[in-house]
Amino acid sequence: MKENEIRILVEKIDQSIYLIRGHKIILSPHLAELYGVETRVLMSLSGMVEIPRL
């Protein structure tokens, strides 16, 4: 990665971090975007939510 690309990625991550009651968090949709997966896939892999099978 070029230095400029890294800087943009770091800025994107910084903008995704929220401070709530003294804790730094990243919301699921932002984390899924960073990993390049859909939110539902991230949630099912983390065991946070069961995805119903269709």
Features:
54 residues; alpha+beta; 3 helices; 56% helix; flat
Average pLDDT figure: 84
The share of residues in extended strands comes to 5-15%
Helix content: 55-70%
Oligomer: single chain
Kindly provide the radius of gyration, computed on alpha-carbon positions and rounded to a whole number of angstroms.
14 Å
SSE series = HEEHH
| Coarse structural class | alpha+beta
Query: In order across it, which strands form the biggest sheet?
Result: 1-2
Protein name: KilA-N DNA-binding domain-containing protein
Q: Helices and strands in order, then pairings?
A:
Layout: H1 3-16, E1 17-20, E2 23-26, H2 28-35, H3 39-46
Antiparallel strand pairs: 1-2
Helix pairs in contact: 2-3
What this model shows, in words?
- With 54 residues, this protein is α+β, with helices and mostly antiparallel strands.
- The protein has one domain.
- The protein is built from three helices and two strands.
- Strands 1-2 form a two-stranded antiparallel sheet.
- The relative contact order is 0.11.
- The model has no long low-confidence stretch (mean pLDDT 84).
- This is KilA-N DNA-binding domain-containing protein.
Give the structure's gist in a few sentences:
The chain is of the alpha+beta class.
